[in-house]
Write a structure and sequence with these properties.
It contains six helices and six strands, in the order ααββααβαββαβ. It has helices at 4-17, 19-24, 47-50, 54-64, 89-105, 136-151; strands spanning 27-35, 38-45, 70-74, 110-118, 121-128, 157-160. It folds into two domains: 1-81, Fe-S cluster assembly (FSCA) (GMP Synthetase, Chain A, domain 3, 2-Layer Sandwich); 85-177, GMP Synthetase, Chain A, domain 3 (2-Layer Sandwich). A hairpin with a 2-residue loop joins strand 4 and strand 5 (121-128). 38% of the residues lie in helices and 24% in strands. The strands form two sheets. The chain has a three-stranded mixed β-sheet with strand order 1-2-3. The chain has a three-stranded mixed β-sheet with strand order 4-5-6. By secondary structure, the protein is α/β, with parallel strands linked by helices.
Length: 177
């Protein structure tokens, strides 16, 4: 459960800053827990409502609520973040993809897979509805990359190695753009 004072401060900061934008895009946010400076939020509705603003949300909550060190977003009923002690960069990336990013884009029949990590460069592949989607670049550059950079300061860059031309069922076809 959220710590009463911090939980209320986080909820208030969300309501003032990003909640109207999230709601307007068909989503919602709820404070699930505030423990040890880590805020866990539950994101509901369209992944396009929350995913693109995660890095902004993280920065705004850290600035508005002293003591907040990290913001973790889960799907409704999703797990709390496991500890990252002893995990290498690839394991931490996979954990973030599996717990924070993939649950949100699953609503669009999509998934992100880690292909490789080399000298801080992260290579990912978009699958399912994300492969060939006309908004894939937006998802990568405005959603996935800022979130990974905020969580993984040792990350040098992100490369999408998806063969988008061979996507058979993109969520948004190029014609819908």
């Amino acid at each position: 459960m959220p710590q009463p004072d911090l939980g209320n401060a986080v909820a208030s900061a969300i309501e003032r800053s990003v909640l109207p934008s999230v709601v307007a895009r068909g989503g919602g946010l709820r404070v699930v827990a505030v423990e040890g400076g880590v805020v866990t939020l539950e994101a509901r509705g369209s992944p396009g409502a929350t995913l693109p603003i995660l890095s902004r949300l993280d920065a705004q909550l850290r600035a508005a609520v002293p003591g907040i060190t990290r913001v973790h977003v889960v799907e409704p009923g999703g797990p709390s973040p496991p500890g990252a002690r002893g995990e290498g960069l690839a394991e931490r990336i996979c954990r973030i993809l599996d717990t924070e990013i993939n649950p949100m884009i699953a609503a669009h029949r999509g998934r992100v897979a880690l292909v490789d990590v080399d000298q801080g460069w992260v290579r990912i592949r978009l699958e399912g509805g994300c492969q060939g989607c006309s908004l894939a670049e937006v998802t990568v550059r405005q959603g996935i990359e800022p979130l990974l950079r905020a969580r993984l300061p040792e990350m040098v860059g992100l490369v999408d190695v998806t063969d988008h031309e061979s996507g058979t069922e993109p969520f948004f076809s190029p014609a819908k753009r």
